[in-house]
């Protein structure tokens, strides 16, 4: 007679949490940061024999040591936040928009082209130019976002691959425009646009040259929070993100929501290109977005699409980026070493999300609870 072995519970099981208190949520994140600093300190000491505290102080100095460094950190954080806000509605409805890089670039190209041609003509005031350039960047970004949404809605294409490939198309368009506008000819660079007249540049606001950057991004941040939280369209996005079948049952048309939401997402990313060109670099190149379109995915995902939380995460990532550059130059570390430190910190923060959403149940604990 065949013997049947009794099933034995595994030593550890992973169970999804039904919910977690807000204070526990932030306590886990704080613990993740402390673990990250400890691991980074061990790495720093193992590689350089330096005091990790000195390195951390240097990182802080690199991000906030002078007024210029503070300005750059805020500028970079605002750029990340703007793109993250643009990605939030698409990701919330589980439309994986990996094309923010391209949407930023086409918005920047539209802005740079108008800066060059309208600046040469000299027939339009800077405030009017800013309005025209903003509208052009919004339309360009929206078109770049709508194209993959239409294919998804009509033919069910994979939006991840489609939006990713659109990035490469945008890069080639940018390269063509740079070659068309290069100044001087043969330099392979557009150079600073309208450097003498500053036509089309953001004016100072609140005594800051990045004041208008901050104002625009904060308006978008508050607006997107209200849109996702309280509007009918925000509700449709949330339902579609939970289940497409449920959305259809509720009378929501997924194809229409895909197209509408991606138009909004692309438009905001295109506006980020306008801010990058007119409000920051005053030039255009294939590196204008600088990989921030991909980094902003981390911002949106970690914040769980809450735009106010995105503000904190954007500043954290901008601080890590500026701090890594500073320690690389101060302590003669190569870029790879500073990137490893940034990677350790990001990995721990991302890993903390696992412990927020799941818990581990040990066999002996379950048996004790049963008794």
Automatic annotation (TrEMBL):
Alphabetized GO MF terms: transmembrane transporter activity
Record bears the keyword Membrane: yes
Membrane topology according to the record: Multi-pass membrane protein
Keywords assigned: Cell membrane, Membrane, Transmembrane, Transmembrane helix
Annotated TM spans: 26-47, 77-96, 102-118, 130-150, 162-181, 202-228, 257-277, 298-320, 340-358
Subcellular location: Cell membrane
Record GO cellular component, one term: plasma membrane
Family matches, as Pfam families: BPD_transp_2
InterPro entries: ABC_transp_permease (IPR001851)
Keyword flag Oxidoreductase: no
PANTHER family assigned: ABC TRANSPORTER, PERMEASE PROTEIN, GUANOSINE ABC TRANSPORTER PERMEASE PROTEIN NUPP
Name of the featured protein: ABC transporter permease
Organism placement in taxonomy: Bacteria, Bacillati, Bacillota, Clostridia, Eubacteriales
